[in-house]
Design brief:
Blueprint lengths: L2 E3 L2 E4 L8 H11 L3 H15 L8 H11 L20 E4 L5 H9 L3 E3 L6 E3 L3 E5 L8 H8 L3 E5 L3 H8 L14 H12 L3 E8 L4 E10 L2 E9 L4 H15 L4 E5 L3 H6 L2 E4 H11 L8 E2 L5 H5 L7
Parallel strand pairs: 10-11
Antiparallel strand pairs: 1-2, 2-13, 3-5, 4-5, 6-11, 6-12, 7-8, 8-9, 9-10
C-alpha cells in the first residue's frame, strides 16, 4: 500500500530482501574479472602516487596502523578528519548495512580505488540548496523533446554497475568495487538507498545515478551517462522531487565543475554537520520512490520559486 508523508509517496511495504535467485544474479552482475581488478589496482596505485597525493601517504599509513587497534564497527569522528589526505577520517572495515547507514548519519562516506576502503569527511562539503538549482536552457529543451523517460528505484543493481563502468575518454579507475556495490545494494534493499534511471525510446538504460536518503537529506553517490546529458536529465528529475518532497539539501560530497554549474557550492564541514544534524531530526523517507512529474513538468520548474 502506498503511504504519503509530507508530500512524499513511498512504498515501505515493498521493502524486501532479495530471494536466493536474485542474490545469485546480483553476485554475478557485481563480480569483477581478474583483468578488471588488475587494471583497477594499476591505475589506482598510479592515482594514489600522483605528486598531488604523495604528501598524504605518511598520514594514511599512520591511520591504517592505528586502525589495527580499533574495533571494526566503531566509526571515526568526522570532525577529526585530516586535511592531507583531504578528508581522510579512518578505515572502513565494516560495510554492513547498519554501520554504513550510521556512517551516513555522521556525515562519513566510503571511498578507495585500491587497498582498504576508507571513511572520508572533507573539510569543505558540496551542497545543493534547491532554490539555487540551475537548469540549462539546452537541457530544458532536451527534456521537452520526449525521447527519454525517468524512473526511481527500478533498476538499482543495473545503475550501480553502470556507475562502476568505464567512462568515455577516461581511464577505467573506479572506487565502486564489488564490496561497495553489495554494501549499497543492501542499503537499497532496506529502503535507504535510491536510484534514478533514464530510459531511451528503445527501452534501454541510457543514464542514471544513486544515493542515500537519511532524514530529509540526500547524498548523491555516483552517476553515469551512456547518451548525451542523460545523467543530467535524471539528476534534474531527482532534485525536482527532493525539493517538492521537502528535503533540506542534496549532498554532492566533493564539488566538481558540473555540479558547480548546476548550483552546488561548498560550505565548511562544521556548517554541514550542523545542517545534517537538523535534517536527521526529520523522519527517514524509507521505501521505494516513484516519479510523480513527467519530463515536461520538470523542464518548466523554476527552482528559485519553490
Amino acid at each position: 500500500m502506498m503511504r504519503t508523508e509530507a508530500g512524499l509517496a513511498y512504498f515501505a511495504d515493498q521493502i524486501s530482501l532479495p530471494d536466493a535467485g536474485h542474490a545469485d544474479r546480483r553476485a554475478a552482475l557485481f563480480r569483477e574479472s581478474g583483468r578488471d581488478r588488475l587494471e583497477r589496482w594499476a591505475l589506482g596505485l598510479a592515482w594514489a602516487a600522483s605528486p598531488k597525493r604523495l604528501p598524504g601517504l605518511p598520514a594514511l599509513a599512520l591511520v591504517t596502523l592505528a586502525d589495527l587497534f580499533r574495533s571494526p564497527g566503531i566509526l571515526p569522528n568526522p570532525e577529526a578528519a585530516l586535511d592531507k589526505p583531504y578528508g581522510l577520517a579512518g578505515i572502513a572495515r565494516d560495510l554492513s548495512m547498519p554501520n554504513l547507514l550510521a556512517a551516513h548519519r555522521r556525515g562519513l562516506y566510503p571511498f578507495a580505488h585500491v587497498g582498504p576502503i576508507k571513511w572520508w569527511s572533507p573539510p569543505q562539503r558540496s551542497l545543493l540548496f534547491f532554490s539555487q538549482f540551475h537548469i540549462a536552457k539546452r537541457l530544458r529543451r532536451q527534456m521537452r523533446q520526449g525521447h527519454y523517460r525517468v524512473t526511481f528505484d527500478t533498476d538499482f543493481d543495473g545503475v550501480i554497475k553502470a556507475c562502476a563502468g568505464q567512462r568515455a575518454g577516461r581511464w577505467h579507475v573506479t572506487w565502486i568495487t564489488p564490496a561497495i556495490m553489495h554494501a549499497y545494494a543492501a542499503l537499497f534493499d532496506a529502503g535507504y538507498a535510491h536510484s534514478f534511471e533514464v530510459w531511451n525510446d528503445k527501452g534501454e538504460l541510457a543514464g542514471g545515478g544513486y544515493g542515500v536518503a537519511v532524514g530529509n537529506s540526500f547524498v548523491t553517490e555516483s552517476q553515469f551517462s551512456r547518451e548525451d546529458n542523460t545523467s543530467k536529465i535524471g539528476f534534474t528529475v531527482l532534485n525536482h522531487h527532493l525539493a517538492q518532497w521537502g528535503f533540506a539539501f542534496n549532498d554532492g560530497k566533493i564539488l566538481t565543475p558540473t555540479t558547480r554549474d548546476m548550483g552546488f557550492h561548498e560550505i565548511p564541514r562544521a556548517d554541514y554537520l550542523t545542517r545534517l544534524a537538523s535534517a536527521l531530526e526529520q523522519s527517514d523517507r524509507r521505501g521505494r520512490w516513484q516519479v510523480e512529474a513527467d519530463l515536461a513538468q520538470v523542464a518548466d520548474w523554476q527552482p528559485q520559486q519553490s
